[in-house]
Amino acid sequence: MWLKFKRDWEEPESAVTPEALFKQRRNIIKGFGVAGAASLLPATGQAASWFGGDDEEPAAIVRRALNKTDIPPLHNDALTPEAKAISHNNFYEFGTAKDDPVKNSRQFNPNPWSFTIDGLVEKPLTLDLDDVMAKMALEQRIYRLRCVEAWSMVIPWVGFSLSDLLKQVKPLSSARYVAFETLYDPEQMPGQKSRFVGGGINYPYVEGLRLDEAMNPLSFMAVGMYGKTLPAQNGAPLRLVLPWKYGFKSIKSIVRIRFTDVEPPTTWNILSPHEYGFNANVNPKVDHPRWSQASERRIDDAGLLGRKRIDTEMFNGYGEQVAHLYKNMDLTRYF
Questions:
Q1: Are residues 146 and 312 in contact, defined by beta-carbon separation less than 8 angstroms?
Q2: Residue 138 burial (10 A CB sphere; 0-12, 13-18, 19+)
Q3: Which of 221, 212, 217, 231 is CA-nearest to residue 257?
Q4: Considering 49, 74, 149, 256, which has the largest number of Cβ atoms within 10 A of its Cβ?
């Protein structure tokens, strides 16, 4: 069923989207994967389209989502230019410099792709991307993205509610957490092959949420952005988006989701627990040990010195939707 009601954190898309981009919207949609599977686009590192099957072209799938569901952000923020969002990334599987992912992911091929949902569930599933497209109704959501490094973006994602996916496996009453795992493929991901290239991380990358966080309406599984399939450097073909948490929680290129009754290990918490907590909620009052989190640098077309610096909001501005999850918690301790 397509979403047809307005939630309290939504605004008209025209209020947040630059006018030129708003007017060109149909051109953006038409540019998505026409004529079947998209070819590689070396200039951006765009992975081949993974929408398969003969029943419906990928352009039609996303057109339905964008025409019938518009989920803009809480704030009157201009969208980050697409060229910046696909070229300024943290994805250490492809290198640690901001432009490494776009350069080193050009030959990444996510097709075929499958992922497993298992653990403390009644009906474990292994799904491929055709299964996902058959089961899930796509929608567009424009979310703020706040990196723990104190920079930020505003990105239009295409995907579906995480809770809609997780409900299909019927979690057991004993489940308390949801663990996520990224693809491990050193032949395609140079950062996994070399600890020097990959920042010293023990791969595969893992993340986790409390079950109530995973089921929150804001938790989102993205399969596209800017009306196109996800580029490899942004987590193709399937990634998590959690707008009230720092960006490293939004795990990319997911191959496994597992329900558990104990708090799962998470990559950055393992690597440096005094710097990166399990919760990782955006909190301007809790600084990183090496820098302040009170403000952020918005990534846009301006140069480094010209970019707008804004005050960071608690929960990245989504407190009305998520603050109840952390009632009576000491967020300076459980950071």
A1: yes
A2: buried
A3: 221
A4: 49
